[in-house]
Please model this.
Amino acid sequence: MVNISFGFILLISATSCLGALNFKTLDAEVGPVVYVNLLFRHGDRAPIKPYPNDPYKDPNYWPMGYGQLTKQGLYHHLVLGSWVGKRYAHLLPKNRNYNPKAIRVQSTDVDRTLMSAEAHLAGMFPITDEEKWGGIDWQPVPIHTIPKALDKVLAAKFPCKKYNHEKHKFEKSAEHKALMKKYRALGNYLSKHSGKAFTGLEIFENLHSTLMAEKMNNLTLPSWTKSVFPDKISVPAGFSFATPTWTTEMKRLRGGPLVKEMVGNMNMKIDGTLDPPTRNISMYSAHDTTVAAFLNTINAFNFLPPPFASLVMVELRKTAQSQYHVTVLYKNSTDPTVEPHILTVPGCSEACPLKNLEILLKPVIPDDWDKECHQQKSTDLMSNLP
Ligand SMILES: *[C@@H]1O[C@H](CO)[C@@H](O)[C@H](O)[C@H]1NC(C)=O
Ligand SMILES: *[C@@H]1O[C@H](CO)[C@@H](O)[C@H](O)[C@H]1NC(C)=O
Ligand SMILES: *[C@@H]1O[C@H](CO)[C@@H](O)[C@H](O)[C@H]1NC(C)=O
Model:
């Protein structure tokens, strides 16, 4: 009797330990990272589009133009890249030298994500004596990109009829109407002061984004923002980020392709079929919308706007028993010194066996995205392009 209850207590404490892994001791607790998918948002940028009453809409405030990365944005990615290089030094050649056998980088075809990736890689691969080539402390690293009109994975804007149908259905739902009702008063307040029409939750996302960009540039925000920014706006802004992937079907068609690619990468790493099989790191440079869609698709989104230079790490770890477990970490801060949070995919533990993760994510991974989107005609043509 005594023995049984003792064993029971031990079991419970072992389980609760698993539920609270420590970021610093993950390698010892789970096993080393043998492969990682990295997804980040670009760094600080100028507003995409100032709001009608914006005191900073004069383009002279933004010498590089709206939507462009700022020097702070470049710097934050340089420092983040250095952090990433140190964390995953064991997945890179000696002295963190650059080698195409170890890493593949892909960016959306947008100036700010391409430049963020460049700054990030400059921090990740500090030039060593043996790498010197032209008298400057920098070396080029290839960044792959696909034009927006052809990108079905990262940009996630590729037309999909079924997705549009599901989105429309959601927008008509009682759930969506309740959200709109809940935030109507705040929306009207913002609309009155900003001069922007309140037609949907996007107003929160857009204003949060513009005000944050201005704040990060040390511009003084108008006094009407004091009572609402950032805290009050960030909650409905988070919902706005989650709405494109609200239902399971929307997740599958919108966030699914990137989830499928990352899970596929991990399986190919294990099978030795990755191209090249020596690749240890796949890096994706994209947007707040990409980060939110990815996290919400795996049901691990915190419903807050992803900060500039926030980073998701999907790590494949090999346990002492030669099992493959996945840990998902989210470094959701522009400040590169802030440590990441360990995320849990609901239904699994923080260190989730890859096989279990695949079963859990099956509903949100499309078998054949083109077919499911019912767009065979227009997409067949494009998917044949190199
Ligand atoms: C990939 O990582 C392994 C350690 O898991 C390391 O031994 C190997 O050298 C790395 N590959 C490259 C190309 O750096
Ligand atoms: C804003 O001010 C802080 C504190 O003085 C400074 O560290 C930072 O570099 C400034 N940012 C910009 C974009 O000028
Ligand atoms: C980062 O994520 C954690 C956990 O979800 C949350 O508590 C925190 O407020 C987030 N920080 C930012 C800046 O979004």
In short: Strands lie at 33-41, 103-108, 144-146, 281-286, 311-318, 324-331, 341-343, 352-353.
